[in-house]
Amino acid sequence: MNKSCLIDTFSHISRGRLARRGMLTSVLWIAVGSMLGGTQSPAFGQDDAKPAAKPAYPLAVATSGADIYTVDLDLPGVWKTSDATSLFARGTKLLRKPMNRPRCVAIHPAGGILVGDTATREIYWIESADAEPKPLNNGYLGVVMALAVSPDGKTIYAGDAEKRATFKLPIEGGKPELVARVNARGLAFDSEGKLWAVTPDAAAVKKIDVNNGEVEDVVTGRPFQYPNGLCWAGDHGYVTDGYGKCIWKITADGKTEKWHEGEPLVGPVGITVTDESIFVADPKQKQVYEFNRESKAFKPRLEISGE
Fold this sequence. Notes:
Layout: H1 3-35, H2 45-49, E1 58-64, E2 67-72, E3 77-81, E4 85-90, E5 102-107, E6 113-117, E7 122-126, E8 134-135, E9 144-149, E10 155-160, E11 165-170, E12 177-180, E13 186-189, E14 195-198, E15 203-208, E16 215-220, E17 227-233, E18 236-241, E19 246-251, E20 256-261, E21 271-273, E22 277-282, E23 287-292, E24 298-300
Antiparallel strand pairs: 1-2, 2-3, 3-4, 5-6, 6-7, 7-8, 9-10, 10-11, 11-12, 13-14, 14-15, 15-16, 17-18, 18-19, 19-20, 21-22, 22-23, 23-24
């Protein structure tokens, strides 16, 4: 991994730590202001009380029918896009509170979404708009970077960057169990029930047999500059490359080719796929783009009323 990759990796994983230090400073200033008879700084409580006007750092994306769910790391929270974009779940800027640093999202089979939150070491189930986040793993995991739900809808799989491993837990919640020592940054199931993972390690793409934990290295040699997310469609998958500003197509036997490069992508991270489209979250563009899988035509999907 080159120097720029190390810097970007530190940036992604450490954004929460730096934000928390800044928040601690704000709290201290508020306390000092109170003792001196001053007023509270508007940079703390007020920002946490009102909805954000527009996306700040869209990092991950998932779809359910016509609905698009986008995790916003710096909001923090989750946007929902149907005909327009609105706030589905608002997190908090308060340290160690639910949804302080959400990073990944998956669709819950019973409705709503699953969100991985690194600040509280939790996976939350948010059943509906503005619903209270329901914790599922009792804080056992660390930096959850990727989520996937098994084809039968009974099991959640999570890639934990802190433990550099992939875990599973029941859909209703419980203590996670180790599946494989795979440092997944993106996870997706194929039609045969095999779990695919993109990693920052020597083998960029791995295939996991979740029944016995066996791992196969599929893409080696680091063809991607900085892979972030992975999705699977039929007999092939797609991987986002943040430094390459592109989307790669990969086959089950490990062949790779660039599917789309350049405009509008600047730093693509999250990715998901439907029968007709590929959706990509690009935090540097503060946008989610929908690409037609045949024509490759694209359009922005985060459209806030009043902008």
